[in-house]
Amino acid sequence: MIATVYVTKNFGFHRGEIYFADLDPHYGSEQGGKRPVIVIQNNTGNKFAPTVIVAAVTSKVSKKPNQPTHVLIEQNPAFSRPSVVLLEQIFTIDKERINSFMGMTSEWEMAQIEKALKCSLALDRENMNQERGNLFG
Questions:
Q1: Measuring CA to CA, which residue among 9, 121, 106 is closest to residue 55?
Q2: Mean pLDDT of residues grouped by 10 in the chain (137 residues)?
Q3: What EC class is this (predicted)?
Q4: In order of start, what are the domains of the chain with their CATH numbers?
Q5: 24, 41, 65, 132 — which has fewest CB within 10 A?
Q6: pLDDT given at position 137
Q7: Residue 100: burial class (beta carbons within 10 Å; 0-12, 13-18, 19+)
Q8: Left (φ > 0), alpha (ψ -120 to 50) or beta: where does 33 sit?
Q9: Distance CA 14, CA 107 (A)
Q10: Alpha carbons 110 and 97: distance in angstroms, whole number
Q11: pTM here?
């Protein structure tokens, strides 16, 4: 019997951590290139899976209108300038796409990210019912 062993970079990967990752190749309106990402996957998945679920981050704050799926991070030591977490730009990527550790989100930032993620995935029953009304009403 042959065992499958996943060889990954030696990062611990925890929810809320900020990494620099390579999201290329990308298509159309997907965020791509080398950029910061924030781990949004649960820590059990982070520990055992060869992949990690992340949200893309952009520093183009002025080009991104205030949307319920966006979280503005004005001051975090990981970023040299204000940045926006794009919770409509969620990716499952191989851990080999991660280049370097940048830092950690604060509890407040992560709470805002979770709120925007719920909106993006329609996990909040109240928002989900409003969307159904818009779709079928």
A1: 121
A2: 50 93 84 93 95 96 82 95 96 96 97 96 71 50
A3: hydrolase
A4: 17-136 (2.30.30.110)
A5: 65
A6: 43
A7: exposed
A8: left
A9: 13
A10: 22
A11: 0.82
